[in-house]
Amino acid sequence: MTNNKPKVEGRSDEAEGPDGGWGWVLVGALFVSTSLVFGLMRSLGVFFVEFVQYFEESAQAISWISSTGLAAQQFFSPLGAALCNAYDARVVVMTGGILAGLGLILASQATCLVHLYLTMGLISGLGWGLIFTPMVATVMANFTRRRTLVLGLAFSSIGLSSFAFNPLFQMLVEMYAWRGALLILGGLSLNIVPCGALILPQRHSKVPAKVDSESRSSRASLLNRISSYLELSLLLERPYITYTLAVTLLNVGYFVPYFHLVAHSRQAGFSEYQAAFVMSAAGATDILGRVVSGWFSDLRHFRLIHLLTMWTTLAGVFIMLLPVSSLSGSYIALIGTSLLYGFSSGALTSLVFAVVPMIVGVERMMGGLGLLQLIESGAGLLGTPMSGLLKDITGNYIASFMVAGSFVILGTLTMATLPHYFSCTDPMPPQRRLLDDKDGSDDMFPLMMCGRLEALPAVAPPTSCPTQ
């Protein structure tokens, strides 16, 4: 598995691509925005118990609130990617920040679960979908050699916010009830707007094409343009489909502990603050896992896909061990397992995204990330309600965590079917096939750099994989 791939003649590491500059400012923006998206989403388990008591509904019905938000975030990610390819990433992210805050503010006035589905689920989820993929793709385009490390640093905010948000949200609920707490969270989410403003305005380099005015306005031309913005051609490539299926299976079980571990800890007999601290402890090691994994991955001793399968396997095992550790009523055992789960789940996160440009190429990364989020949205919608249903049937969360961990491990096994998986080196990612090659106009293609679209030669000397 050791990567001894020789460097391409005449190209140094520094020449492989950008590695810093304004990109570090964007890393800070991604740090804040991800904490206010996924860090907040992970901490909504504190509201789970409050919603069950207030609305007097089943665990399965309440689980649909968080699942709808997660699924909407992933479902609308291709929309965010397409809008960025067509217009301006800065405006798209800022709009997403407004919608994310608006959904939570409106949720504070909810009178039934349907209101929460539409506000916390659909409106905030739409906003999250317009934020995450454009921010990640913009940061990744600004780094080559340290791409996994900067993603680990930026995504460490999710663990940090999970550590801080759980007890904070519990305190807000006790002081202002759940309505007041959601109103405050809505205002907090509006801080994503200035994060989006830090993205430099895009300068689109349109690919010239010799077509007559009739074909320019034709339906086929419109469909080709939409397909290009969404990168739908990726759906015909086996490596991308295999990887997407693996991540989708992983997504079924990955978020279950963040929505149900607090409720499970309460059911096991621990106090409200003890239960909230379980997630805070997992969030602390989540931070460490992201940074350590990013640093170690960028040493290039092993292929990223091999490291990813190792961490996903460990995450699946520790998810299954979470309820087992509390059967004896030992709080120390529960904390210990949560710490191990937090580290492994944090370690795999940045790798999931860093592998994408190695499969599809940097120039198709925005669309690849968007489609990945769309396809896995169904799994996000299924995971927590299925877990809640198993709890309603069995009376506890043991089966819920066992099934969730099994899906994560099944995703690991699917990754092992990727072409060249057992090779010691990474295959070259495919290049974008340009639409028009009749007039020599296919010697340029767009690549997002520093929030702008820069034109690069299509016939470039072969290089090693961007992250390897």
UniProtKB/TrEMBL annotation:
GO terms under cellular component: Golgi membrane; plasma membrane
Keyword hit for Transmembrane: yes
Chain ranges passing through the membrane: 21-41, 91-110, 116-137, 149-169, 181-200, 240-261, 273-292, 304-325, 331-356, 368-386, 398-422
Protein location: Cell membrane; Golgi apparatus membrane
Protein family according to the UniProt entry: Belongs to the major facilitator superfamily. Monocarboxylate porter (TC 2.A.1.13) family.
Gene Ontology MF annotations: monocarboxylic acid transmembrane transporter activity; symporter activity
Name the UniProt record assigns to this protein: Monocarboxylate transporter 13
Job of this protein: Proton-linked monocarboxylate transporter. May catalyze the transport of monocarboxylates across the plasma membrane.
PROSITE patterns: MFS (PS50850)
Keywords on record: Cell membrane, Golgi apparatus, Membrane, Symport, Transmembrane, Transmembrane helix, Transport
Annotated ranges, domain Major facilitator superfamily (MFS) profile: 23-423
Gene3D superfamilies: MFS general substrate transporter like domains (1.20.1250.20)
Keyword Isomerase: no
Pfam families: MFS_1
Membrane topology (UniProt): Multi-pass membrane protein
